[in-house]
Amino acid sequence: MTPAYGGNADSALSDVRPVVARIDAASSGEDLAADLIEIWGGLETVLRKMLGGSSLSGQALVREVRQREMITLTQAHALLQFLAARERCDNVSYKPTPADVASAKDAFVQLDTAMGVPGRDAATAGAAAAMAGAPAAGTGYSSAQLAAAEPPEPAVVAPAPAIKPPMRDRAAGLPTWGWIAIAVVALAFAGVAANMAMKNRGDDMDRAVRLMADGKREAARGELNRIARENPQVAAPHVFLARIARDEGDLTTARRELDTAIRLEPESAVAQREMGTLLLSQGQYELARSFFIRAVRINPVDSAAQGLLGCSLIRLGRRDEGLKFISRAGQGSWSACAR
Fold first, then answer.
1. 174-175 and 168-169 as β-strands: parallel, antiparallel, unpaired?
2. What domains can you pick out in the chain, each with its CATH number?
3. In whole angstroms, what is the distance from residue 126 CA to residue 138 CA?
């Protein structure tokens, strides 16, 4: 593949791949911490090459790449979440958790995705994420959710020939067409109100995700909890609350939030895939497999769900079947399972 950015960033990303592949087999907490530190160092090299050279590091480096629209907001968030895990590894007494491993894999996958299309900008990435059933960049909602909120275009009906003039409703003092006009206006206002509510909710989600990307977890958590209270039928804030909890190693809360997300929107491929990813990181391979199957059924073009389904099958000893799904998914962090 031709490198998407200067300085052969694609080659640098390939150098990281073997380290990502071996983290599941780390023999000790110290080895795992060393691998996570090495992976982050490799990803920083990729980011610098994407910029054509830079002395920046950490959050400042991710922010610069994001500001140039080389990665999406979701991809930046994944990188910053892994950075937090990598920084915890600086404490020699810290033992990396399955959530830390998951964040490393997610960061690698997200950067791999960003590298996949030359000149990929935020809008293009958002559209691709929406095709995969993921929240569109900057909104937290899929294109299908946004489209569902749009009022349908009114049907254009040709007038019948020789139609009689409308009769006046004597009781109400308005002709029949007057009441029809009022009804149309009322429906239009209802549609506008629904669109405004959806836009406001999308803006709120965008603000919450930005707080997460900036490492302001408590502020993001508060914003997401508020959105969840004000929109009790929406799954997206619960998915992001689960990610925060997972990144903090609070897997019980992560599971509870994902349970809520799936209860609210059982046909959300993203929520199903997130639950599968959480369970896979905990070694619950059979249960993870069932959630990945649902995610693929809901969104057959979700390559991440297919690849991770392949991983869960391989972990269950069904290697040939798992390899088929990994092959369909293409390259990603799940490719390590095939080795």
1. antiparallel
2. 9-124 (1.20.120)
3. 8
pLDDT digits (tens, 9 = 90+) for 41-78: 889 988 988 888 888 888 888 988 888 888 888 888 88
Q: What is the C-alpha to C-alpha distance for residues 214 and 216, in angstroms, rounded to an integer? A: 6
DSSP H/E element including 101:
helix 98-115
Beta bridge partner(s), residue 168: 175
Residue type, 64: E
Q: 43 near 80, Cβ under 8 Å?
A: no
Which residue, among 282, 244, 273, 237, has the nearest Cα to 98 in the 3D structure?
282
Facing residues of 174 across strands? 169
Q: Quote the tokens at residue 229.
A: 């209270």
Identify how many contiguous H helices and E strands the chain contains and give both numbers: 15, 2
- CA dist 63 to 70, 122, 216, 264, 323, Å? 10, 14, 14, 33, 36
How confident is the model over 242-286, as pLDDT tens digits? 988 888 888 899 999 999 999 999 888 889 998 998 888 888 899
pLDDT digits (tens, 9 = 90+) for 155-196: 444 444 444 444 444 444 555 545 555 555 455 444 444 444
Tell me if 51 sits within 8 A of 68, measured CB to CB: yes
What are the two backbone dihedrals, phi and then psi, of residue 3, each rounded to the nearest 5 degrees? -55, 135
The answer to whether 116 and 4 have CB atoms below 8 angstroms apart is: yes
Listed in sequence order, the residues at least 6 apart from 233 whose beta carbon sits closer than 8 Å to its beta carbon are 264
Q: Look-up: residue for tokens 């609210």? A: 264
Residues 6+ apart with CB under 8 A from 22: 35, 336
Our CA angle for 136, 124, 143, nearest 5°, is 30
